[in-house]
Amino acid sequence: MIEQTVTVPPEERVRREPARRPVRPREAVRFPVLAVVFVCAACGLVYELELVALSSYLIGDSVTQASVVLSVMVFAMGLGSLLAKRLRCRAAVGFGLVEAALALVGGCSAMVLYAAFAWLGESRYVVVAFSLAIGVLIGAEIPLLMSLIQRTGREPGSGEPDDAAGTVADLFAADYVGALVGGLAFPFLLLPWLGQLTGALVTGAVNAVAGGGLVLWVFRRDLTARSRALLLAVNLGVLAVLATATVLVDDFEQAARRAVYGEDVRVAVHTDLQEVVVTGGPEGPPDLFLDGRLRVSGEDEYRYHEALVHPAMNGPHARVLIVGGGDGMAVREVLRHPGVRSVTVVELDPGVVRLARTDPALARLNAQAFRDPRVRVVHEDAFHWLRGAADRVRERYDVVLSDLPDPGITPSTKLYSEEFYGLVARILGPSGRFAVHAGSVTDRPHTYWTVDATLRAAGFATRPYSASGRTPGFAAGPDRADRSAGTGPGPCDWGFLLAVPGDRPPALGLAPGGPRPRSLDAETLADAARRAERTRGAETPPSSTLVHPRYGD
């Protein structure tokens, strides 16, 4: 038998061998993927923190808003992971579209949320909707990337082990480190430099560039020509929308601010801590808003500040401490009393005091109180300052005034706690008097009487009273101060508590020989005490904010 040797030309061998997809080295893909996971995780956490911060500012009660956003978003991430299973067969184009959608939704979330607040008067449902949408998109990222990265770096039949566990560990490590960077960048870089609206838009642009760039560059061979064109068009469209919104963000913010505060906005500044807005005509009384809540109504603020200050000055009042009061109105009333030697104001935000000094309308309203040489301003957290005050001050204070927002606003709650009142007791003289603004007696009686119980638990005897005459729209507490959106007239009174050390409640009156307030006299104070007592219900437990907060409706 004769054997024949058949020689196959090389080009014929190429045609007969089954075509095999080129395999990309694992390291060529691994580092770009991990870098994009890092960036996308940072962007995702910025979106999350943006929703928490803005919803707390617009709605109030930061604990509730953080709980809603975080819980909804974590649930939605699990839902997104399940939905991503349907996209695994087309993981590259799926990931590109997911990142484009996340960049658009997350980048525009702050503007849409603020627009809903300004023009619709309600933003709770918008917060939930954005938390759900962003969570679903974030949850789909890792499963799609896992599908992509597992297709690279190992040639079939090569015997090389598939290190799926190591890949998962790398992806989650990059994800967690990116989240750390995003969480730190939001308060220390984005908010101070760009603000909430522009910061979210810039974050969205970074997200779109990172996600789209990874797919169109590293995984371009997994895309058809039609898919590449689709992803390129979608990402360019998203970037165009974000860029346009960034250019128009100042005009949008001004229009939204006018929708919230009216047409006569004179000053609007963002301090390191809050948004401060002053409204009113050049000759009319100004209104001061802090984070969207009316704190000083120029038409009748004197009723509030006279009721807070003058009953407490009925006794020794040479040394006075004011906690809060950065607007200077309480200082004005204190300085009307003869015999005042020194006034210390502990105000956290220097921007409020600066505006109260320099704005002509506010300075006229507070009678240039901060120019008085007897007034000293300390820019520090009141709780922290009081912890060391007992060792620093040479003499105890005769009068302490707590001129703070309602305890329903979470940042203020610790300043209504038993621990805080215990610190006040350490620096108050034995015959000293302590006046506390405790919210509305009629609208929030539970909160008001919880403050009363907390003061008594800290060793004070109290005398409840209130002042009426609040103008429509005034909201010193967690209600939105929006007089243009039809949210109602708001509370019709302010509730106060006059406290002294010991077991004997103080007398409620005015200082003999002192100034005569426009809104107070002996009969008015007696009526104010009776009105407050009529709202007393069952005994409420005191609030220890550091352990068991009890404030709320």
UniProtKB/TrEMBL annotation:
This is Polyamine aminopropyltransferase. It catalyses: S-adenosyl 3-(methylsulfanyl)propylamine + putrescine = S-methyl-5'-thioadenosine + spermidine + H(+). CDD domains: AdoMet_MTases. It is an enzyme of class 2 (transferase). The keyword Cell division does not apply. The keyword Transcription regulation does not apply. Gene3D superfamilies: Vaccinia Virus protein VP39. Residues 465-488, 505-553 are annotated as: Disordered. InterPro entries: MFS_trans_sf, PABS, PABS_CS, SAM-dependent_MTases_sf, Spermi_synthase. It comes from Streptomyces cinereoruber.
